[in-house]
Amino acid sequence: MTISIWRYSHLALAVSSFILLTLASITGIILAFKPIQEKLQPYRTESFENISLAEVIPQLRKQYPGVSNLSVDANQFVLIKGMDQDGENLLAYVNPTTGALLGEPEAPSEFFEWVTALHRSLFLHETGRFFIGLTSFLLLLITISGAALVVQRQRGWKRFFTSIVRENFAQYYHVVWGRLSLLPICIIALTGTYLSLARFQLIDTAYILPDVDYDSIQDEPALDPTLFEIFTKTPLADLQSIDFPFSDDVEDYYTLKLKDRELNVNQVTGEVLSEVRYPMSVILTELSLDLHTGKTNSLWAILLALASGNILFFIYSGFAITIKRRAGRVRNKHTPRESEYILLVGSENGSTFRFANAIQEQLIAQGKKVYVSELNNYQAFPRAKHIVVLTATYGLGNPPTNSLQFAAKLAQYPQAQSVSYSVVGFGSHAYPDFCKFAFEVDHLLSRQEWAVPLVEIQTVHDKSPDEFGHWAGVWAQHAAVSLTLPASLMTTRQDRPHTLVVTERTTLSETHDAFRVRLRPQHGLTYRSGDLLSVYPADDHRERQYSIGKVAGEVQLSVKLHPGGLGSEYLYALQPGDSITARIDENPHFHFPQKAQQVLMVSNGTGIAPFLGMIDECTSDTNIYLYCGFRDHASFSLYRASVEDYVEQGKLSGFQLARSREDNRYYVKDLLQRDESLVIETLEGGGVIMLCGSLDMQKDVVELLETICQHRLHKSVSYYQSHGQILMDCY
Amino acid sequence: MSSLFKTALLLVALLWASPSDVMAQKATSKYRCMIQMTNYMGEGAYVVISLINPKGAYEKTLYVLGPDKEWYNTLKKWHQFQSKKPSNISAITGASVTGGDRAVNVLDIETSKINAGYKLRFESAVEDNKYHAADLEIPLTTAGLSAKSEGTGYIRYVRFSPN
């Protein structure tokens, strides 16, 4: 399966590091509590921020003559070390202003020491440190590839934080929490990597404090230490530690380690004997340590713990996603050369394969020869009778990675025999270019000589089982196979919850080929023109669907009578007063647009039915143009009265009739070509073009529209389809 | 009985009761000991200061700079001695010292051992790095304790100051 390089890297990196990453995350969570616990101790002095070294150092030295070192830790606790009056070792926290002893530091917790050693080196010393450092670096790469995947998914940095389509728990929260904890995790990984590099001296953190020149040390002018400039100017908050002079000898001096430099200070004159600024690498090491451990800030430590917890979740959810995708991988029993049913999948992450696999399984169980593959593997299929394309759209209406070569391969390998095709598009209305690539594939196929449309393209919003089930049902009927797909994938509905009473059935039109039926739903049912009525003529699984026109509150169907046709003969046998059980399915992708200013309706034959209902229902001042094609005047006679009525009432702004067997032998396509400017005006003005009728008519009209769109509007039909400006419901 | 006699008797009794305690307290001197490290790169060094008898054998541990038992075996020779004759070192254990830093600690040294052929040995090790069995050895003499003594490994020099 072709997957993008980012996705591949993301997975490969995760697989290669997840064991150590799990360990580092768990220990990391525990260690985040170390600074939190430390900061709970009461050794911090309120006035800490505002005092200078001059107020602290000389006084403490007077109070504790044996003091050798003072240090300020990450919690801003001040610790002194030295010898007390009894000559015993002294190690205690002090109040820097009063010199009062606050308490002795506890021995480092053995538990935290143990966890720290595990976190840093896995108890394996240098070897362990290397692997942990490597893991840290891998985590950094995982973060980068993860960010790239989010950008790809969301179509650009600007949409980075816009909403995400929810496919399932693991996928949704992997992305949602991934975005949120991207920065903290990136910081953890970056600082961890940096610390490892510094530890292995790949980053040079060495600096040498220049030696003091003992010959030039002066012992005058003697100055009171509280007046030393370096002491008065330096706040205690800037101090890391200070080594006190070992004796009163002038050759012993103060060594101050500040946040950014280290210096030696003459203990008599206060002169700075030598000074060195830390190299950037040292400051970065200190910063990395602060950020990596959270030792300076409890809130950051909590955030680090949460981010580490998220890493654990990502490991879990990442593998859950991968396992799910692998479950969707293809196992073919038949070769492309011998298969009659070809299922081609376009999918970025492989999830669409589940649908193809479900169909494959069923067909194979019925003894059919089936081949499933990605769209890129399109080739000559010498035995093929049916091609089904199931494809998602990726990025800004682009083909998924495994479908990029489809268009070229389609041109390269025309099939030798005629093959029926059907396209199912998977997508989400959350994205602007809904199922655009699926529409494109549909058009590409429709232009192939050998390709015969079997059923109208079906779009599936957010993997809707209803929509996919609907397609599967219709396709199975036309392909004369039976598909009862598993409940986990969809629910194939055969229930007939609605009872309808026949109120009218016309006789055949003058040309003896079509009639009209009106039915009144028994209960107050909400439905709209364009919805579908499913009837079960033989009271078995066989279902026939008809587009509904809602006229005067009743269901109006236009039906072409096929001699021996299951559905049409059943409906033609109905008499007023008869009642039938059936089901009305919502068909939202073919509803009259709510907002459009102008709607262009194009139909041929009985495809006029839903339009009549829509015009009847319409109460807004939308401009509606109706273009319909019939064989001749006689076959239009069934609808003439209604249409003339609508024109008179002003509900129709324009009406054009093409008669293919009379007069100029015009098809509806020819009328549209003549009125090209109306087509352009409609699409440019945000209006909608609706198509209903036969797939042959659709093929012709779409071809025409494609030419108009490309040449005059510089966009493709699929662009308008994905933006809901061209709607189709053909059969 | 005169009070003087009573006191003397009490003193004798005490001496009998715990002669070593009283003797030890009397016979030790406290020295501040400063270890200045060289600018080596790497982890904090573990340093142990031991009293070596005139025969050249370990007699007593005076101070351990380095808190984690995990690394004590890197100080090989001292670790052998400490394993054979374990003594409680918790009161004389402090932090390790990193390159360029200094450490100042208080050592208890029996006065009788000074100028009696004993030595102070500074043994140092850095985890996974070189071990210095005798980074520095100082004769335990009045002169030795007042001089600045140069180290040969991680230690740059050591200085003492009597308390």
From TrEMBL, chain A:
Q: Does the keyword Membrane apply?
A: yes
For this UniProt record, the keywords arranged alphabetically read as follows: Flavoprotein, Membrane, Transmembrane, Transmembrane helix
- For the keyword Ribonucleoprotein, the answer is no
Positions of the FAD-binding FR-type domain: 495-593
Lineage: superkingdom: Bacteria
- UniProt GO cellular component terms: cytosol
Per UniProt, residues of the Flavodoxin-like domain are 341-476
The record ties this protein, via InterPro entries, to:
Cbr1-like_FAD-bd_dom, FAD-bd_FR_type, Flavodoxin/NO_synth, Flavoprot_Pyr_Nucl_cyt_Rdtase, Flavoprotein-like_sf, FNR_nucleotide-bd, OxRdtase_FAD/NAD-bd, PepSY-ass_TM
Report the Pfam families cross-referenced here.
Answer: FAD_binding_6, Flavodoxin_1, NAD_binding_1, PepSY_TM
Q: Where are the transmembrane segments?
A: 12-33, 130-151, 172-195, 299-323
Q: Which GO terms describe its molecular function?
A: flavin adenine dinucleotide binding; FMN binding; oxidoreductase activity
Q: Which SUPFAM superfamilies match?
A: Ferredoxin reductase-like, C-terminal NADP-linked domain, Flavoproteins, Riboflavin synthase domain-like
**What name does this protein carry?**
Sulfite reductase (NADPH) flavoprotein alpha-component
Q: Where does this protein come from, organism-wise?
A: Dyadobacter jejuensis
UniProtKB/TrEMBL annotation, chain B:
**Position of the signal peptide:** 1-24
Q: Does the keyword Signal apply?
A: yes
InterPro entries to which the protein is assigned, alphabetical: DUF2271
Keywords, A to Z? Answer: Signal
Keyword Signal in annotation: yes
Protein's name according to its UniProt entry: Uncharacterized protein DUF2271
Organism, by scientific name, is: Dyadobacter jejuensis
